Amino acid sequence: MIMDQKNYLAILEAILFTMGESVELSKLAQALEIDKNEVKKYLEELTKKYESSDSGVQLIELDGAYQMCTKPEMYDYLIKIAKLPRKYVLTDVQLETLSIIAYKQPITKAEIENIRGVSSDHVVNRLVEFNLVCELGRLDAPGRPMLFGTTEEFLRSFGVHSLEELPALNQDTIEEFKREAQEELEYEAQEEEENIII
Q1: What integer pLDDT is reported at residue 4 of this predicted model?
Q2: In this predicted model, what pLDDT tens digit does every residue of 20-75 receive, in sequence order?
């Protein structure tokens, strides 16, 4: 079956609208039965189409996958008729742990704790609940510890298309993480001591 350009654009639009989540370029090419470079050309055309001021949606790229979503400026109108989406506020400790995972992934909890200097079970579990971090498998080592990495939700939340777009991390920042973690540990120990005295 021979299709023209409009057919391909319509098919891509239908797939991305229906899926509601990101779809890999290779899967789109497979569905359309055409070359990935050609699919990318049509996706770029769709992106330009949605960039116009009279469109309420946009097409974003997330690490080689594509997703159709609402433009941020439409948010205020959406919440008038939809339930307010779940919002979360990350604490300094969660942000610190998330940045360690983002820059060092795949990484185990033991490696995170080695950098932070304190137990990180609870904070990693919270980041998994927020869908910013996920399990990537197990390390081929004694005990086969779980490996963690960031998710597509992380990319969306921080407005980057891939991990390569994250700013460079220097050693001073790592040392700052360790210092803050030590302060956190000392504060928790002091609180426990005060509770015991009471």
Answers
A1: 61
A2: 888 999 999 999 989 999 999 999 999 998 887 688 889 988 888 999 988 888 87
State the first-to-last Cα distance of the chain, in angstroms, to the nearest integer: 80
Structure pTM? 0.54
Unique residue bearing structure tokens 């497979």? 30
CA-to-CA distance for 155 and 130, rounded, in angstroms? Answer: 13
DSSP string covering 118-131: S--HHHHHHHHHTT
**152-166 residue pLDDT tens:** 889 888 888 888 888
Domain CATH for 46:
1.10.10.10
Sequence-distant (≥ 6) Cβ neighbours of residue 20 within 8 angstroms: 68
Q: Does 148 share its domain with 58?
A: no
What does the alpha-carbon distance between residue 131 and residue 126 come to, in Å, rounded to a whole number?
9
Domain residues for 61? 5-78
Crossing angle, helix 36-51 and helix 5-19, to 10 degrees? 80
* Residue 25 contacts residue 65 (beta carbons within 8 Å): yes
Cα dihedral: 105, 159, 132, 74 (round 10): -170
* Distance from C-alpha of 184 to C-alpha of 134, rounded to nearest angstrom: 25
